[in-house]
Amino acid sequence: MRNERVTELIPKLDLAKRADFEGEKKAPPKKIERLEKEIKKLQKEEGFKSVESRFDEEHNLWEVSFVNKHGAEHTINWVLSSSAECRQLISKYKLIEPYMEPPFVVETLAKASAGAAEGSEDESASTDSEKAEKKAAKPAKRKTETEVVEKLNVRDLRDYVINEGRKDFTIQRYKGLGEMTAPQLWETTMDPERRTLLSVRLEDITECETIFTTLMGEDVEARRKFIEENALDVKNLDI
C-alpha cells in the first residue's frame, strides 16, 4: 500500500474473506463502501489525487483504488487480502489488537540511585562496633525505582523500543567484502562452521541476461516496476 494509515484499515475492517469483496455490479458490499469512505477521510491530509471503488468484471469482485500524491495507483482487492503475507499480518494483528489503544506505557528499572552508593561509602568508613550494630539490625528494604515513558501512538512506541534495543550495539553496513577487516570477514563469511555455500547454475542464459539488464541497466522505471511486482515473492534475500 505504501501508506501506513491505509494499511491499518485492512485488519481493522477485517477484509479477510472473499465474501467481503462480493456484491452486485451496481451496489458494492458494505465493507468496500466503508473502506472507500475511510480512505477518502485521509485524502486531503495524505494528498491522494483520487479514491474510488470499482467492480472488476473479470473476477466479479469489488475493489478500492487510490492514486497517491506521486501519481502511483494502489489497489485493495481480494488478490491482496488472500495473499499469504497479508493473511499472516492480519492474524498477528488480531493477537495484539486488544492492546492497541493508547496511551502506551513503558516501565523500566532505573539505575541504582546515588543514595545507595553513598550508603556503601558510609559503611566502609564506620567502626567495627557500628558495623556489628548494623548487622544485628533488620536491613532496610531497597526501594525499586522505575522509569515510566508514555507514548501516544504505535509508531512512537515502536521507534522507542527499537532505539532502546540498539543501545550498546554497533551496526555496520558494507557494500562489499573488501571493506571488511580480516576478523570481520572471518566472522561473517569465511568461518566453515558458520558459512553457507550455495551452488548457482545458469540454466537459461537469455532469461538471466534479461533480469540482469532490468536490475542493473539504466531503465529506472523498468527496475522499479520489477521490484514492486516481485518484492513479496522473495524467499532468500542476501543482506
Describe the 3D structure.
It is flat, with a radius of gyration of 29 Å. The chain has helices spanning 4-7, 9-12, 30-46, 78-81, 84-96, 114-125, 128-136, 154-165, 182-190, 205-216, 220-230; strands at residues 50-56, 61-67, 73-76, 104-109, 146-151. The protein has a three-stranded antiparallel beta sheet. A two-stranded antiparallel ribbon has the order 4-5. The longest helix is centred in the first third of the chain and has 17 residues, at 30-46. It has 239 residues and is an alpha+beta fold.
Protein traits:
single chain, alpha+beta
Topology:
Blueprint: H1 4-7, H2 9-12, H3 30-46, E1 50-56, E2 61-67, E3 73-76, H4 78-81, H5 84-96, E4 104-109, H6 114-125, H7 128-136, E5 146-151, H8 154-165, H9 182-190, H10 205-216, H11 220-230
Antiparallel strand pairs: 1-2, 2-3, 4-5
The total count of strands amounts to 5
Output the number of helix runs: 11
Helix content: 40-55%
Residue runs with pLDDT of under 50 for 5 or more positions: 114-121
Order of SSEs: HHHEEEHHEHHEHHHH
User: Globular, elongated, flat, extended or rod-shaped: what is the shape?
Assistant: flat
Beta content comes to: 5-15%
Taking the sheet with the most strands, its summary is: 3 strands, antiparallel
State mean pLDDT (0 to 100 scale): 84
Radius of gyration: 29 Å
Helix/strand-derived category reads alpha+beta
Query: Termini separation (Å)?
Result: 24 Å
